[in-house]
Amino acid sequence: MTHPASLPLMLRQLHLSTMSQFWESMLVKADTQQWNGAKYLAELCELELNERYTKRIARLTKESKLPAGKTLGTFNFDYTPNLKPQKINALFSNSDWVDRATNVLFFGPSGVGKTHLAAALCYELIQKSIRVRYYSATALVQQMQKARHELKLEQLFTKLDGYSVIVLDDLGYVKKSEAESYVLFELIAHRYETGSLIITSNQPFNEWDKIFTDSSMTVAAIDRVVHHSIIIEVEAQSYRKREAVNQNNTCMETTLK
Description:
The protein is built from 11 helices and 5 strands; from the N terminus they run H-H-H-H-H-E-H-E-H-H-E-H-E-H-E-H. Helices cover about 55% and strands about 10% of the residues. It has helices spanning about 5-15, 15-35, 35-65, 85-95, 95-100, 115-125, 135-150, 155-160, 180-190, 215-225, 240-255; strands at about 105, 130-135, 165-170, 195-200, 230-235. The termini are far apart. It is elongated and about 75 Å long. The protein is α/β, with parallel strands linked by helices and about 260 residues long. A 5-stranded parallel β-sheet has the order 2-3-4-1-5. About 25% of the residues are buried.
């Protein structure tokens, strides 16, 4: 018969670190509240699962490289009257689109909250233990160009395959060069029906010929992105412009007093 003194060692060998830490204090609580063995074991398992979930979320958040503080709770729908909260809430509450490798596209002028919504959506996915990775489109294109030059592009794609969702932020700022257009198209083609992209862009589809050097490549890229997609248009005055105006008005009022 196994002696109870060996329990801490067995828990560590099973990599149940939280249970190993709290089994004694929970045993005292179990005696006090007259739990049976099943109740005691269930409470210990719940502690272990909760701690593992907390650590997993922290790890996924760190590796995502998402901009901090961009949650749905901090997004002000009052400044985007044409954007229906119901549509956004439906997207946030159901992650089945990730399983279907559906893309989410946020279109609108600069400074209206496209990046905020994209990041907020990713934070929500992380809470469901879904791996995401944020990139500015320009930075990822440069990284892919470097990998292609070093004959390591397939290795990079394999690494990116580990993420269910990849954010390409500010796609419209990718330079129109043959090398950049080609690797960007390769990524879109590679992710087609295998992994989701969240794309933010201040350029609608009819201006994507400013991104890709070849018209046939533009059509092919749009076709792959749109085939399985959710498109959200964000129309509003730029947050940054509005804040600048408000600050200027505040300074003027202070000066006049």
